[in-house]
Amino acid sequence: MIDVQNLTKTYPTKSEPGAVHAVRAISFAVAPGEVFGLLGPNGAGKSTTIGMLTTTIEPTGGRASLAGHDVSTEPIAARRASAVVFQDPAVDLALSGRRNLAVHAQLWGLDSTTADLRIADVVDAFGLDELIDRDVSTYSGGQRRRLEIARALLSRPQVLFLDEPTVGLDPRIRFELLDVIAGLRDRGDMTILLTTHYLDEAERLCDRVAIMHRGDIVALDSPTALLAALGREILEVRVRGGADTTLRRLQQLGLAGADAFSVGTTVTVPLHDGDARTAADRVVDARIEHVGLNTRAPNLDDVYLRLTGSSLAA
Amino acid sequence: MTAITTTRPSSARIATARPRTNHLTALRTLTLRRFALSARTPREILVPLLTPILFANVIAPALAKSTGAFGGIDYTAFVAIGTVGLLVPLSCILAGVGLIVDRENGAQRDLLAAPVPRSLLVLGNLIVAVCIASLQVVALIGAAVLRGSTFSVSASGLAWFLLATIGIAIAMHSAAEILAARVPKQEEYVGVAPAVALVPWFFAGSFFRINAMPAGLTVFAKVMPLTHALALMRYAMVDHRAAGLHDIWGAHSTTMMAAASLAVVFAFAGLMLFLANRVFARSAMR
Predict the structure, then answer these.
(1) Which residues of chain A are within 8 Å of residue B285 when distances are taken between CB atoms?
(2) Is A308 part of a structural domain of the chain?
(3) What is the pLDDT of residue B150?
(4) Residue A295's closest CA among A229, A230, A232, A234?
(5) Do A192 and A69 sit in the same domain of this protein?
């Protein structure tokens, strides 16, 4: 459904043409009905990638297609197959929620009868009944975001782009929205590309995730497979000063493998099939200076930090 | 590093019957949306009216009284038409604030993701700007009539007047689109906009015939589309001898001169609209 081949975006700079590589020849494919996550911090290239797929950013290299339509040569057909929920609100605040939905429905080619029916459907599904005829300027952030998701679903897009859909929302509303997105995923009739820097969202919602760092995809797999690479448990060694020295020492002593990494004052050691208790005892026995030791199950934070940490060190 | 795995789907198009958007329907939708947004901010409609109405109804009668006869035509009507050259640019340029609001806090990004040509967004905004400017011109002329100005209107005169008004409104709204696409913030736009709207008006013979200015400025005035528009409007509504058109062209056939001035206005409007579409498309595609 989404096919991306060597997609590249380079922004020229005044002093050095072609110097800013926002996206570096990335490739991936998303199957129909799949929920695919682009994961990474600000500046990783996620929003630029979505911008190219939604035809608001012009690629400088490679190609991408949505539902078989090339985004560069058939942009209108590609847009017809998709809808976007933007990171920042993109609604007319001075108009009612209903008017916002109607404008979207008409632009996506729905006749008035179908539009009215679908608006009634999404208003009901997203609990917007009491809000829908009020000006959007009176909505809370969460209500506005629900309206935007409802709007994106009106055309029943084959591909739905969700760009950081929960950013800036309070925890309760964020949780509600994750439920909504999970509901969309369970319907299985829509391909969803989601960008986020919340790793728990990716873990909960995505069939596969691509971890982006400085415009590159540094890993792409299912969350389960990415976590499996770290084993069942990890050991965290917290030290007082910089953790790099401790990491090197642990590696020299064979207590940590090449995939161990340090961030700030913490060394994280994937244990793979090792026993957590034994690993902690060995750190103590080796007289490694530390202020705390603990073990826990790995999460996508660890995957991300391991991958980008090594890149930063290189 | 985790191995990158990709599954390449079939390159064949996924069979779907998705509704196509009729361009006229899309234009209607975008135009009605812009109308609704403008109606919610009536100050955008009322504020540009204030200065021209004061000019036409306070300053012009006072000047007419001070200066006496003005080439056998009603000076207050002459100035009322001159203030159309202030009203239309002001109204269209100030509408550009709404375009920046649309981009910064409105639904523009969703509209850019819609399966319609992006030039329809510019066209929808333009239609509303032209309609609002036309309504304001009617209000201005109506106020002048109530104050005692005398206009002489024929069907063909009305057509010349409307075409000149529409032409200058297209040009100025296009200028607003270009400016709004180039200027990042509302504050900066508000700083620049009056200069774009007002400066041409001072040289276009708004209160006087252009040959009353120094020779160099007269030459400059003759190439300005606003001068052509005002001369054409006066020919249509006030001065059937076409003194203004004669000052520009120096020819004998008033119809030929009127057609030539209208061509100048529409050539300028066409160029500005082309540039507005181009700049908007470029600013929409980063």
Answers:
(1) 55-58
(2) no
(3) 85
(4) A234
(5) yes
Q: Measure A290 CA to nearest chain B CA, in Å.
A: 28
Domain interval for residue B78: 23-284
Neighbours of B257 (CB within 10 A): 22
Cβ within 8 Å of residue B48, ≥6 positions away: B87, B90, B91, B94, B136
pLDDT above 80 for A254 = no
CA–CA separation, A185 vs A207, rounded Å?
9
Identify whether A158 is part of a domain.
Answer: yes
Q: List, for residues A51-81, the tens digit of each pLDDT value.
A: 999 998 989 999 999 988 999 999 999 999 9
Residues of A in contact with B107 (CB under 8 A): 90-92, 100, 103
- Per-residue b or e along A13-23, where b marks 16 or more CB atoms closer than 10 Å to that residue's CB: eeeeeeeebbb
**Of A226, A242, A274, the domain-final residue:** A226
Long-range contacts of A223-228, Cβ-Cβ distance < 8 Å, separation of 24 or more:
A223/A300, A225/B2, A226/A300, A226/A303, A226/B2, A227/A298, A227/A299, A227/A300, A227/A303
Residue B180's identity, in one-letter code, is A
In 3D, which of B181, B211, B179, B182 has the Cα closest to residue B197? B179
Residues in B whose CB is inside 8 Å of some CB of A read: 1-9, 11-14, 16, 18-22, 25-26, 29-30, 33, 36-37, 40-41, 105-117, 284-286
Q: Which tops the pLDDT comparison, B69 or B234? A: B234
pLDDT of A257 higher than 70: yes
Tell me if B143 is assigned to some domain.
yes
Token output for A130: 């009491």
User: What CATH number has the domain bearing residue A242?
Assistant: 3.30.70
Nearest-by-Cβ selection for A108 from B33, B112, B115? B115
A66-86 per-residue burial string, b: 16 or more CB within 10 A, e: under 16: bbbbebeebbebbbbbbbbbb
Could you give the ipTM of this predicted complex? 0.82
Write out the residue range of the structural domain in which residue A15 sits: 2-226
B29 lies in a domain?
yes
Inter-chain CB proximity A1 and B114 less than 8 Å? no
For residue B18, tell me if it sits in a domain.
Answer: no
Residue found under tokens 């908007």: B280
**Smallest CA–CA distance from A69 into chain B, residue:** B13
Domain count, chain A: 2
pTM of the model: 0.83
Whether A137 and A180 map to the same domain: the answer is: yes
Q: Is residue A83 domain-shared with residue A8, that is, in the same domain?
A: yes
Residue among B43, B61, B58, B96 at smallest CA distance from B272: B96
**Pair (A13, A118) in one structural domain:** yes
Residue type (1 letter), A59 = P
Alpha carbons B211 and B248: distance in angstroms, whole number:
9
- Looking at chain A, the number of H-run helices and the number of E-run strands are 11, 14
Per the CB < 8 A criterion, the answer to whether B236 and B137 are in contact is no
**Predicted local confidence at residue B16, as pLDDT:** 57
Domain assignment of residue B14, yes or no: no
H helical segments located in chain B: 23-40, 43-54, 60-67, 75-105, 108-112, 119-147, 155-182, 186-203, 215-223, 225-237, 243-249, 254-284
